[in-house]
């Protein structure tokens, strides 16, 4: 039912964050949109973090505030409906 996903991303290893979205259509043609924060890392890789309903209610914006305080550039889609 409810299974949280944990990420261990160190702020000192983050070079930038990009907000993205993906639209999907189900078999009946209905659209759904999924949102993500992509943390680009100094090591060359990236971590894709899903912005689900709980994250939309405030946690995602708090992450972006911390990123701004640490002068980490943020781009892309970062507002959620």
| Mean pLDDT, all residues | 88
As a percent range, the share of helical residues equals: 10-25%
Number of helices: 1
Tell me, briefly, the overall form: elongated
The largest sheet, given as strand count, sense and whether it forms a barrel, is: 4 strands, mixed
Given as residue ranges, the uncertain stretches (5+ residues, pLDDT < 50) are none
Gyration radius from CA atoms, angstroms: 14 Å
What proportion of the residues form beta strands (DSSP E)? 35-45%
Distance between the termini: 23 Å
Which class best fits the helix and strand makeup? Answer: alpha+beta
Q: What strand line-up does the widest sheet have?
A: 3-2-1-4
Along the chain, the helix and strand elements come as EEEHE
What does this protein look like?
- With 81 residues, the protein is of the alpha+beta class.
- The chain has one helix spanning 53-69, and strands at residues 14-25, 31-41, 46-51, 74-76.
- The longest helix is centred in the last third of the chain and has 17 residues, at 53-69.
- The mean pLDDT is 88.
